[in-house]
Design brief:
The protein is α+β, with helices and mostly antiparallel strands and 105 residues long. It is built from one helix and five strands. The protein has one domain. The strands form two sheets. Strands 1-4-5 form a three-stranded antiparallel beta sheet, with no helix packed on it. The longest helix is centred in the N-terminal third of the chain and has 19 residues.
């Protein structure tokens, strides 16, 4: 009986080894590619300006029959921005900015 058990064990072991030959090789490990440096930098002085105009006139009424008449109104809007920023370690930006605006009308 022990010879039969030994023969079965050797047969199973040999078959497993034969099947292992058909297993494909593992894929190669991915190649490490370092992150390229940033192509832009937020360091610098920035400025801008904005202009605009608005006007209104019209008549309004509600469901109770009240009528409202508005006068013609026009306004000029303008302003500007100025900022100074510096970038530190590609993740942090510090700086200061100032904005102003003016309405005339």
């Amino acid at each position: 009986m022990s010879r039969i058990a030994l023969a079965v064990a050797l047969s199973v072991g040999a078959a497993a080894t034969a099947l292992a030959a058909d297993v494909p090789a593992p894929p190669p490990s991915p190649v490490y590619v370092p992150v390229p440096p940033s192509l832009y930098d937020w360091t610098g002085i920035y400025f801008g300006a904005n202009l605009g105009a608005g006007w209104s006139s019209g008549n309004f009424s509600d469901t109770a029959g009240n009528a409202f008449t508005t006068t013609s109104n026009s306004q000029f809007l303008g302003g500007g921005q100025l900022a100074r920023f510096s970038e530190i370690a590609m993740e942090k930006i510090n700086g200061a900015r100032s904005r102003t605006g003016h309405r005339r009308g």
